[in-house]
Amino acid sequence: MQFNVVTLFPEFFTSPLEASLLGKAVRSELISVRFYNPRDFTPYKHRKVDDTPYGGGAGMVLMVEPIALAVEAIRAGNPESRVILLSTRGRLFDAALAREYTTKYKSLTLICGHYEGVDERVAEHVADESLRIGNFVLSGGEIAALTVIDALARRQPGFMGNPESLAQESFDTANQFEYPQYTRPADWRGYKVPKVLLSGNHAQIAEWRAHESNKFSDSEQEPHS
């Protein structure tokens, strides 16, 4: 899967895209990530990409033209790429959407907002849609873009060492949490692993895991991370 990231800070992604499974996916070309800095496309002097908002207000707003030119450069070589603006006003990105994107798209273009925001014409006329990763505000869209990249990359065949890991994840089914996991030692400071997991009875283990998953699903209490 190919990701094109429109960002003022491509260096933000350096470490995450070199580490762990995500780094391995990049090195093995399971995914590719390319960066497009709006400053390289702006027609304005001094590589200007932002300006004060019409109507007044705090902060600076990213201008539409540098972003539009960057996206047009991407689409010139990859017209099928789905263009997404990371925005607090976008649709919530969740597991169901991750599955949908994995099936429908081979290329995504992710626009990272920054400063006070992005000219609304980017959402209206440049991007195909807007997404958010939660009901909170970040200092920039880079963290959100990286979240989307990781969530989709790990669904690519060959990303996970054990493909069955995807089938047992939290949220794989709507409102479904993954069951609790334990490993050695069986007794840690008096806190013991549930006996059923040590029994070797796979039917009982499967029943216990289903019960624990449903318990979290039916409870208002969030499970421990």
3D structure, described in words:
The protein has 225 residues and is of the alpha/beta class. The chain is built from 7 helices and 10 strands. The longest helix is centred in the last third of the chain and has 17 residues, at 202-218. The relative contact order is 0.14.
Largest sheet descriptor = 5 strands, parallel
- Outline, from the CA principal axes? elongated
Number of strands: 10
Tally of individual helices: 7
Uncertain parts? none
What is the topology, as strand order, of the major beta sheet?
2-1-6-5-8
Beta-sheet strand percentage? 15-25%
Termini separation comes to 28 Å
Topology:
Blueprint lengths: L1 E5 L13 H8 L4 E5 L13 E2 L9 E2 L1 H14 L4 E11 L2 H10 L2 E6 L4 E2 L1 H7 L2 E4 L9 H12 L10 H4 L19 E2 L2 E2 L9 H17 L7
Parallel strand pairs: 1-2, 1-6, 4-7, 5-6, 5-8
Antiparallel strand pairs: 3-4, 9-10
Helix pairs in contact: 2-4, 3-5
Summary?
This protein is α/β, with parallel strands linked by helices. The chain is built from seven helices and ten strands. The longest helix has 17 residues, at 202-218.
